[in-house]
Amino acid sequence: MTGDRTSVAHPFGAGTLLQLIREGDGATRADLSALTGLARSTIAQRLEQLRSQGLLRELGESDSTGGRPPMMLAFNEDAGVALAADLGATHSRLAVTNLGGTVLAEDSADMPIASGPETVLDLVDERFHALLREVGRDDDVVRGIGIGVPGPVEHATGRPRNPPIMPGWDGYPIPERFADRYRVPVLVDNDVNIMALGEHWTNWAAVDHLLFIKVGTGIGCGIVVAGRIHRGAEGAAGDIGHIRVAAGDEADSIVCSCGNVGCLEALAGGGAMAARLRDQGLDAADSRAVVELARAGEPAAVRLVRDSGRLIGEVLAASVNLYNPSVIVIGGDVSQAHEQLLAGVREVVYQRSLPLATRHLRVVRSQLADRAGVIGAAVMVIEHVLSPAAIDAAIAAAPPGPRELAGAGD
Ligand SMILES: [Zn+2]
């Protein structure tokens, strides 16, 4: 149950009007009429359809310029909630949000993804239920569920595909697990894509082209093209961790999790940095330990973080020439470790990319930090369930109200 992707919105149906209202372009009936060319009576009828779904609020009257002041229209963000989960390798974050993406309640927990889908999803289901109780809402206000996982996903079916660090999850039908309790769309994507979506929606909505780089144990990239996540032909777009960045005896001696040598992830990921620090006699079990050592100012860790930034910068410099983004956002736990990571990335990107591509390019740190994924999972749901096609389908499926029967035909 991943929702109906084949339905098409009416060009100026109620769903499109809602979108214009949500984007702030259609604040009054007169605005909507001017934007769509629809008769006022048709607009009134479609607004009534939105109102019958609980999606509309009237904010009172705007400043009058003479005559009867127009009523200001707004989207009712509390018309329902989204359930969101960002499942990491060892740690997960869950939230209930309203339909404006505002977090109403959230929770995080140690939850090893390697425990397998039954164990993990039972816990997610239980926590979702507890969060809904915490905000005093029932199951029937849930409009959709969004889940991010640390591996590749076939987005259309919500099934992980050969995920290297998720034993037992390959092909597992995650959406079906929630079908009994909630009759709503369940959308699944990989963690980097939802982080990109969360950061773009929250902080860079006016930017069309953005790259989000997650630097954690591994390294991945979420690509926003023309405001939307670009997944590629097989959903494998953005897997920059396995681009070859180095050759030579040292690089060739480090075998990556993918089986190749010289991969970016095997040389610059948090896992690789931890291994290097252990070689130098430091106590660094994983990428979190690298973060702690760098924050504490341990010179070897700080230097490694800078070098890692430079290597990531090499791949990003090529990506910038290929793709010409306006913004590169660096996220993931290692990005929060030390300014030297961002400094290393910037140094190489500005030096190696073409001047035209970097003229207005910004390279910044994720502002949502460890909440980017869970916010993005909610955004994925909100954008899906409030799309014009989904709204028109929901209205078509609803039993007609007395007013619609009386005023049918447009
Ligand atoms: Zn690799």
Explain what the structure shows.
With 410 residues, this protein is α/β, with parallel strands linked by helices. It contains 16 helices and 14 strands. The protein has a 5-stranded mixed beta sheet with strand order 5-4-3-6-9, with helices on both faces. A 5-stranded mixed beta sheet has the order 12-11-10-13-14, with helices on both faces. It has a two-stranded antiparallel sheet with strand order 1-2. A hairpin with a 3-residue loop joins strand 3 (81-87) and strand 4 (91-98). Helix 6 packs across helix 14 and helix 9 packs across helix 10 (287-295). The longest helix has 25 residues, at 299-323. The protein is globular, with a radius of gyration of 24 Å. Mean pLDDT is 90; it is low at 1-6 and 403-410. The chain binds zinc ion. Zinc ion (ZN) binds at residues 242, 256, 258, 260, 263, 265-266. Residues 242, 256, 258, 260, 263, 265-266 line the site of zinc ion.
Number of helices: 16
Number of DSSP strand runs: 14
CA radius of gyration is 24 Å
Structural class comes to alpha/beta
